[in-house]
Amino acid sequence: MAKIEMDIDTKLPPERVVAALTDFSDRRPDIWPILSREFYEVYSVGETSADVREGQTKPFKVSAEEHYDWSTPGKVVSTVKEATFMKAGSSVTTTAAPAEGGGSHVHIVWERFPTSPKGWVAVAMMKATGGKPLTSYWKKVFDGLAEKQA
User: Fold this and answer.
1) Residue 109 and residue 141 in contact, taking contact as beta carbons nearer than 8 Å
2) Which domain range does residue 41 map to?
3) Which end of the chain, N or C, is less surrounded by CB atoms within 10 Å?
4) What is the pTM of this model?
């Protein structure tokens, strides 16, 4: 198991961070370019939760059925229900709070339990880098959205 905590500061306000994380429209793979349309499938979306399949083809091909919950304001939890590379129950918890001077401070808790060689590689990479690939990617997405709204 790996638990890594990361932080991002972005110009995007907290409500827009949550909106980006919980946009399950056909635009989701455009917002989050690493997501492959090949795997993207929405099973259900409610007021504060969704069940979807997502995946990527780079750096390797993986997919997961995830349950998203945003019932707590400013917080989004995605929990693996079934995956090709991680155990059910693995999760990513993202909390967005207002930052001084505007924008958001985003705290991410990445808890993944690998079940395959691809999962072990992902966990090893995240541990070795302290989550830098994820935080760099998310910051780029959030800052890009902030620039579009400006």
Assistant:
1) no
2) 2-149
3) C
4) 0.92
User: Would you list the DSSP string of 26-95?
Assistant: TTHHHHSTTS-TTT-EEEEE-SSEEEEEEEE-SSS-EEEEEEEE--STTEEEEEEEEESSB-TT-EEEEE
Q: Please give the tally of structural domains in the chain.
A: 1
Contact 81, 51 (CB under 8 A): yes
Per-residue pLDDT of the chain (150 residues; tens, 9 = 90+): 689 999 999 999 999 999 999 999 999 999 999 999 999 999 999 999 999 999 988 877 889 999 999 999 999 999 999 998 899 999 999 999 999 989 999 999 999 888 888 788 888 888 888 888 889 999 999 999 999 876
Give kind and range of the element (H or E) at residue 70: none
| CATH code assigned at 80 | 3.30.530.20
Find residue 114's DSSP bridge partners. 86
Q: Which two tokens stand for residue 137?
A: 């990617």
Q: What is the largest CA-CA distance in the chain?
A: 43
